[in-house]
Amino acid sequence: MDIEAEVVTLNDGLDYVILDEIMAHSNVYVYLSNTEDPRNFCVRKKLQNSAGSLLIGLDDENEFNMAMKLYFDKNGKK
Predict the structure, then answer these.
(1) 25: number of CA atoms within 13 Å, CB side?
(2) Rounded to whole angstroms, how far apart are CA atoms 32 and 10?
(3) How many CB atoms neighbour CB 6 within 10 A?
(4) What is the pLDDT along the chain (78 residues), one digit of tens a residue?
(5) What domain of life is recorded for the organism (predicted)?
(6) Full-model pTM
């Protein structure tokens, strides 16, 4: 079974597959994994503007920790 995944290229020039998107606190958090090295995982915020959407870094470690809690609450083992 083939699953089609959305792939984006970040500022580091590497390709990342979008694992999930979670809306919280008026933000959309996007969870990404590098296509060449799945251990290279990152979280970005999606901003919408007139030209489309843009992925930006999180503000600080507290926001990262909150975003990761959202991810594990949604996708962690039950």
Answers:
(1) 8
(2) 10
(3) 11
(4) 566 789 999 988 999 999 999 999 899 999 999 999 989 999 999 998 888 889 999 999 999 999 999 999 999 865
(5) Bacteria
(6) 0.87
